[in-house]
Amino acid sequence: MSTQNVVPKSPFERMASGEYKFPPQKQYTQPGKEYLMNPPPQYSSPDYKPSNKLQGKGQEDIDARDTLEIIRKAKSADAKDPMAIAVDLGYEQNCKSVIDQVVNAYGSIDVLVNNAAVQFQSDSLDEIDDKRLDMHMKEGSSIINSTSVVAYQGFATLVDYASTKGAIVGFTRSLALQLVSKGIRVNGVAPGPIWTPLQVASLTVEQIVVFGSDVTAMKRAGQPIEVAPSYVFLASNQCSSYITGQVLHPNGHASLYAHTYKICVFNFTIKS
Question: Which residues form the signal peptide (predicted)?
Answer without folding.
Answer: none
